[in-house]
Amino acid sequence: MDCAKASYDWPVLAIGMGIAAEHGIGLIAFQAQSIFILIFGDSMKAFQDYYPENLAHCYGCGSLNTLGHQIKTYWDGEETVTRFTPEPHHTAIPGFTYGGLIASLIDCHCTGTAAAAMYRAENREMDTLPAFRFVTGSLHVDYLKPTPIAGELEIRGRVKEIKGRKVIVEATVLAAGVPTARGEVVAVQMPEGFGA
Amino acid sequence: MDCAKASYDWPVLAIGMGIAAEHGIGLIAFQAQSIFILIFGDSMKAFQDYYPENLAHCYGCGSLNTLGHQIKTYWDGEETVTRFTPEPHHTAIPGFTYGGLIASLIDCHCTGTAAAAMYRAENREMDTLPAFRFVTGSLHVDYLKPTPIAGELEIRGRVKEIKGRKVIVEATVLAAGVPTARGEVVAVQMPEGFGA
């Protein structure tokens, strides 16, 4: 996390807040005799925003895939969280969310979590090299009940195990706070010659 | 299978072929002294084409979801087959198919297979009532190797078990004939009050 501390007058602060908001940068201001600003650079960056450009085209989570879901995952303590609002056409039976979309959200949420967990395990920031990128070895989803297609879904993940190049991640999908699906992904660190 | 046999002159055959093509009806012609036509009504209808209209909106397989994948599944002996060509934006890592799409294809292929298998088990045609429609209880996918995003994928399914309202279906995804993913779905016959 890059952290800068400075003292500015109000008008400068206003401009700074505008720029910060535009770039998704966290900003906290304290007022004393003058105004202190703490800019937490990168604090709002999602796991997926750290993927190398050539690996950021995934339909589910690639920030460069303009036709994809572009999910964003963040730490929330020891858990990870993604929020996603299905489109009306992402339906299964009318009124409910398509199970394939739920599987897709779990998939990308968990591979993102795996990468973030591996950085944490190595006590490294996510903007340091070499970059971690995980692919899916296996995916399992239990559909607990129909998931209403009515607003934002929350996907919460937790690392179950790290062993070698594999990270096992559990995830729960919640609709209005109610768990509707549970998943588990065995994520595998992408080999150098992936697909060769 | 409805089957009609008739004798027509060439101009009639030409008109008939046009109508048949428009409606996706199989047509075989034999020429002798006159022309015989065998029209296999319904022979080209996919499992999904028998879903009741109110249950045909699924993003993966609903024939009425114009923004969805609209997959079509057919019997091939004891196996079932779906063919689907991913769009360029359905990418994972560049050059390969998105795992979430693969999971989605397996999901809908297997629920469709479950419905067809239940009709077969009851020795009923798929256009008879009551209609069968299955939802996904659980989905498991093992990604064997990266799936090239280069042309048509084939998903082949086989019924593993029918017990009560559950049908367990296994599926394999093949790219240019090479298995790249294996899946298993526990499909559950949709209850009357689904989602209530």
- Overall morphology of chain A: globular
Low-confidence stretches of chain A: 1-8, 10-41
Query: How many individual domains of chain A?
Result: 2
The number of helices of chain A is 2
Give me the strand/helix succession of chain A: EHEEEEHEEEE
Work out the helicity level of chain A.
10-25%
Query: How does the major sheet of chain A shape up?
Result: 6 strands, antiparallel
The percent range for strand residues of chain A is 35-45%
CATH hierarchy, class of the largest domain in chain A: Alpha Beta
| Tally of strands of chain A | 9
Structure write-up:
- The structure is a homodimer of 196-residue chains.
- Chain A has 196 residues and is α+β, with helices and mostly antiparallel strands.
- Chain A folds into two domains: 1-44; 45-189, Roll (Thiol Ester Dehydrase, Chain A).
- Chain A contains two helices and nine strands.
- Chain A has helices at 10-22, 99-121; strands spanning 2-8, 26-31, 35-41, 73-76, 79-84, 134-143, 153-163, 166-175, 178-189.
- A six-stranded antiparallel sheet of chain A has the order 4-5-7-8-9-6, covered by helices on one side. A three-stranded antiparallel sheet of chain A has the order 1-3-2, covered by helices on one side.
- The longest helix of chain A is centred in the middle third of the chain and has 23 residues, at 99-121.
- Chain A binds chain B through residues 54-55, 57-60, 62, 65, 67-68, 89-96, 98-101, 103-105, 107-108, 135-143, 146, 148, 190, 194-195, and chain B through 54-55, 57-60, 62, 65, 67-68, 89-96, 98-101, 103-105, 107-108, 135-143, 146, 148, 190, 194-195.
